[in-house]
Design brief:
By secondary structure, the chain is of the alpha/beta class. It has one domain: 3-Layer(aba) Sandwich (Rossmann fold). It is 41% helix and 11% strand. A seven-stranded parallel sheet has the order 3-2-1-4-5-6-7, with helices on both faces. The protein is globular and about 50 Å long. It starts with 63 loop residues before the first strand and ends in a 7-residue tail after the last helix. 42% of the residues are buried.
Length: 325
Amino acid sequence: MIPEPLRGWCPKVPQDTGRFPDPQAAGARPWRLNRAARRTENGAMNEATTNDSNTTPPAGTGTWALVTGASSGIGEEFCRQLAARGHDLVLLARREERLRALAAELESRHRVRTFVLAADLADPGAPEAIAGQLEAAGIEVGYLVNNAGYGVPGKLVAVPWDTHRDFLEVMVTAVCALSRRFMPAMIARGRGHIINVASVAGLTPSTAGHTLYGASKAFVVKFSEALAAEGAEHGVKVSALCPGFTYSEFHDVTGTRGQVSKLPGFLWLQAEDVVAYGIDAVERKRPRVVAIPGAIYRLIVWLNGACPPLGRRMANSNAHKFRKT
C-alpha cells in the first residue's frame, strides 16, 4: 500500500534552478492552467480602464474573493485562477501600480469586477480599515486568501525588534484579524472559503536564521485546523496551503536567491500548480485542511513525523543551503 504522503504528483521541473523555467517544460497536469494562453501573443496586457476610483465594470457575477499579497508570486496566481473561475477580485498589497495593472488585465480578459486596495498589513489598524472600505463599497467577501508574507533573514538577536514586530503583524495577526472580520458573514450565508498560505516550514524542524518564519507558519497551520473545525458545520471551508520551494520573488526579497538556486530541481514547485492544488483542496467536498502540494514535500513531512530526530538532523545539516544567518 502506498502511504498517504506519497500519493499525488511531483512536478517535473528543469534541473537548471538558476532561472525561472518555462511553465510548459514542467510537465502538464490535467488541471493546470496554460500561462501562455492567458497572455496576449506579444505579452502585453489588454487595454483596460485604470479604475482609479475603484469603480467596477458591470460584468462579473461571482463571489468576491480577497487576496492579500496579490501583486506577485503565489498571490498574483491566485488572482488569475480565481478570476478564470468567475470570481470578482479584491486585490490587496502595498504596490498599487502592480495591482492596478493586474486588475485591468483581469477585467479585460475575464470580465470580472475588481477592487484595488493598497495597504500595509504591518499596520495594526490595516485589517479593520480594509473591512471598512469594502463595507462602504458594498462588497461581501466570500473567498479569503491570506497569502501576504515574507521572510526576515538573520538570527533573532541580530535584527531589531521593530522588524520582527512588523513581521508578526503581517504573518500572524493580520491572518487572524481578517479571518475574524470576514468569517461571520460567511457563516451567516452558510458558505465560504478561507485559504491560509502557510508553508512546509511550519511542518518541519526550524533551523538557525529566519527565526520566526517557521514558527509563524506553524501557527497558521494550527489556526487553520481550529478554524476549519469551527466552520465545518456552517458550510465554511478552511485550508492551510503548505508549499515548499516555489518559483516566485520570495527569495529575491530575502536575498537568498543565490543559495536556493543551487538546490536540486525536483524540490521546486510552480506557482500555477501550488495555487491549483490549494483551490482544489479547499473546494473539495471534504477539504484538505492541511494541503501539501508536491509528493516530495508530502514525503518529507511524513518522514519527519515518523522519525523527528532524523528530520532535525537533516534540517540542521542542510540549513546553510536555504537559510541566511
